[in-house]
Design a protein that fits this description.
alpha+beta, 5-stranded mixed beta sheet, 3-stranded antiparallel beta sheet, 10 strands, 53% helix
């Protein structure tokens, strides 16, 4: 058990003990005070009931005669509605007030510590007995009138020979012990219910920290349907994202090492050739220059991708006219495509303003258009369409190339993933990955689908500025 368990357990247990003890002590003291003000033992209550029976059936005269003949140490007091005692005996105000307060409760729970009786004459009387000393035995003289005296029933059986009355009421130890045990069990269960998911999450965090990224806790907490279950879902999402990122990084390192190994091997071979044949130095230097540029381009692409994936692309507060940016990219691409007979056409608005960074947006759009140009056949058409509606700029860039397999429509946006790696061995597979990261950084998105007539269609959406700057 951890310290949190004991904190919860002791806090709940202390609160219950304090509350239960306070309420129990109040009830016990209150009951004890009433016990001291009124005589409530069962045998004395039976005497009081007999007196009430005499009053109901024989009236005030019969009860007065019985009370005058009564020689016991306890008193049966009979008070009318005006506060006058039947025998004009002095009254203690505290027992009288307690009798009036307990009248309703005594009738409700079957006790007869105080009784309210209606006489045959229509007068209402309050009957009660002040406290008496232990060992009281009701005297045999107190009896109900015989039938021939007042037309009443004979005395109730068992009135004669009543035993001693009990002393002060003891504490209910059995109930106290039962409540204490129930409180202990409840506090332990409640503390365990709260601490158990925390310990499961703690074990899961330790597992992830040790490298087990496939650890999940949702299956253990899903049946709780509370904040701990939501925390478990968030933990699983975090672990899944970490696993995806780590796997992606490992694959990226593998692909980078593979891509760098080839130009490094060619550089090493060129240097060895120059050492063996100095007369071929010019050819060797040309090869070294070409491979060096290739490596420089790869490193530049990797740095751009790393900066985008780290969430630090630089300031994103420029107002960029994407329409003008596209027109410039299309003009450059058309000049490069003229050698192969390809055409690049643009149709769209004259202005379309987006908040972001012009360098990244230009890099993303140029990568998509150059990718379409790379896979277009001689004489093909790269169609670039733009439309602004509902606060969004929608771009469609289509080519007439071979397209990609359906299962590769999503993977082509991952680093070093190429749908046709053998048709263009000089590519790195980073252009579309950079384009997606850059567009997502600007709040946009890019998807790919095969065109019905052949070729690939890239669909791009970007949020527009509410108004031109």
């Amino acid at each position: 058990m951890g310290r949190l368990f004991w904190k919860f357990f002791l806090a709940f247990q202390g609160a219950q003990l304090l509350l239960g003890g306070s309420v129990g002590l109040f009830i016990w003291l209150h009951a004890d005070s009433r016990q001291q003000l009124l005589n409530r033992d069962p045998r004395s209550q039976l005497v009081l009931q007999l007196a009430a029976q005499v009053l109901r059936q024989g009236g005030e005269t019969a009860l007065r005669r019985q009370l005058q003949d009564y020689r016991g140490p306890e008193q049966i007091l009979v008070v009318d509605a005006g506060g006058r005692e039947l025998l004009d005996r002095p009254l203690d105000p505290e027992p009288l007030a307690a009798a009036r307060q307990m009248l309703a409760a005594g009738q409700a729970n079957g006790e007869a510590a105080a009784l309210q009786v209606l006489s045959p004459a229509g007068q209402t009387y309050l009957l009660y007995m002040p406290p008496h000393s232990p060992g009281l035995r009701p005297p045999p003289e107190f009896r109900a009138p015989l039938p021939d005296e007042a037309g009443l029933r004979p005395p109730l059986p068992g009135m004669e020979g009543a035993g001693p009355s009990p002393g002060p009421r003891p504490l209910p130890w059995f109930h106290i012990l039962a409540g204490l045990l129930a409180s202990l069990a409840f506090s332990a269960l409640l503390a365990w219910y709260v601490v158990k998911p925390i310990r499961q999450l703690q074990a899961a965090f330790r597992a992830v920290a040790s490298g087990r990224l496939d650890t999940r806790v949702g299956a253990h907490l899903g049946r709780r349907h509370d904040e701990f279950a939501q925390l478990g879902e968030d933990f699983d999402a975090m672990a899944q994202q970490l696993e995806s990122l780590i796997t992606s990084q490992r694959r990226l390192f593998h692909d980078v090492s593979h891509e760098l190994r080839s130009p490094l091997a060619r550089l090493e071979a060129a240097i060895g050739l120059a050492q063996q044949n100095p007369e071929k130095m010019a050819v060797t230097l040309e090869r070294v220059t070409r491979e060096t540029r290739r490596m420089d381009g790869l490193v530049g692409e990797l740095l751009t991708l790393a900066r985008l994936e780290s969430g630090m692309p630089g300031p994103m507060d420029e107002a960029v006219d994407v329409a003008a940016l596209l027109q410039g990219i299309v003009e450059d691409a058309s000049f490069e495509a003229s050698g192969s007979g390809c055409r690049v056409e643009y149709r769209g608005p004259e202005q379309a303003w987006v908040r972001g960074r012009e360098e990244l947006l230009g890099r993303a759009l140029e990568n998509v258009i150059r990718n379409a140009l790379k896979y277009s056949p001689p004489g093909g058409l790269i169609d670039v369409k733009a439309a602004a509606a509902d606060g969004w700029l929608r771009l469609n860039i289509g080519d007439q190339g071979p397209g990609v397999p359906p299962e590769a429509l999503e993977t082509i946006f991952k680093p070093f993933c190429r749908a046709h790696p053998h048709s263009h061995p000089n590519g790195y597979g980073l252009g579309l990955a950079i384009a997606r990261r850059a567009l997502e950084t600007h709040g946009g998105r890019i998807t790919a689908e095969n065109r019905p007539g052949g070729g690939l269609l890239m669909q791009i959406t970007l949020p527009l500025l509410p108004k031109a700057p």
